[in-house]
Design a protein that fits this description.
By secondary structure, the protein is mainly β. Helix content is 11%, strand content 51%. The protein has a single domain, classed as Porin (Beta Barrel).
């Protein structure tokens, strides 16, 4: 008998010989095991492939950053949910890497604007349909002295493996994602963030549904 768990989760699978690690990142409650519907049976392997693609995408693109100096590279996991009604709601989960650029703008003795390049790969899910999602673009962080919370904003080019869902049509696979949010330091290396982000194709397609999402992230600065 086939069973499945209903919910949105990112599972990073590692080998049992301790050479790798097992981690689970989940949003929302996990329901008890139930018999899978035909939609769920078809969606399960697609979601596994989307997670795999996200891992490969971020790992390959992050490979060249390992030589950066300490504190230049941040990597982590992020996830959240759309602000639409329940029937049309989306969930998103992703891995991300960000590199501080070797420039900054000093507006006063304490106020500094620091730019960085951010890359992410993950998946976007709506009911039994999902899509691989990748983003790349600049993010700007406004920091005040040693205050542990920074204001950030950015815009990233976004690619989708599926642009049309049963409940929403994004028009074309290429989108733009803008956001504003807060990033706080829990420790000198561990960060916690919140973003309110908007994804749309900026009118490049006649169908431009757009998507507003609340995103929460946990990062580690190397």
């Amino acid at each position: 008998m086939s069973h499945c768990f209903i919910g949105s989760s990112l599972i990073i699978v590692f080998a049992e010989d301790d050479s790798t690690l097992l981690a689970l990142f989940q949003f929302g409650a996990r329901t008890p095991p139930t018999r899978c519907s035909s939609h769920q049976e078809r969606a399960r392997p697609l979601r596994c492939w989307n997670v795999y693609l996200a891992l490969v995408f971020v790992m390959i693109c992050s490979g060249g950053a390992l030589g950066q100096s300490p504190s230049d590279l941040t990597a982590g996991v992020r996830g959240g949910f759309s602000s639409s009604d329940h029937q049309k709601s989306f969930k998103q989960v992703e891995l991300f890497s960000a590199w501080d650029l070797p420039i900054s703008w000093q507006f006063s003795s304490n106020l500094t604007l620091v730019p960085r390049i951010e890359l992410s790969g993950g998946y976007l899910i709506n009911s039994h349909e999902d899509s691989f999602i990748a983003t790349l673009g600049p993010v700007f962080s406004l920091r005040y002295g040693s205050f542990p919370v920074a204001l950030e904003s950015g815009i990233r080019g976004t690619g989708l493996s599926r642009s049309r869902f049963e409940t929403r049509d994004f028009g074309i696979p290429f989108q733009f994602t803008t956001h504003i949010g807060l990033e706080g330091k829990l420790t000198p290396r561990l960060t916690l963030e919140y973003r309110l982000q908007h994804m749309s194709n900026l009118g490049f397609s006649s169908s431009n549904a757009g998507l507003n999402t609340h995103m929460f992230g946990l990062g580690y600065r190397f």
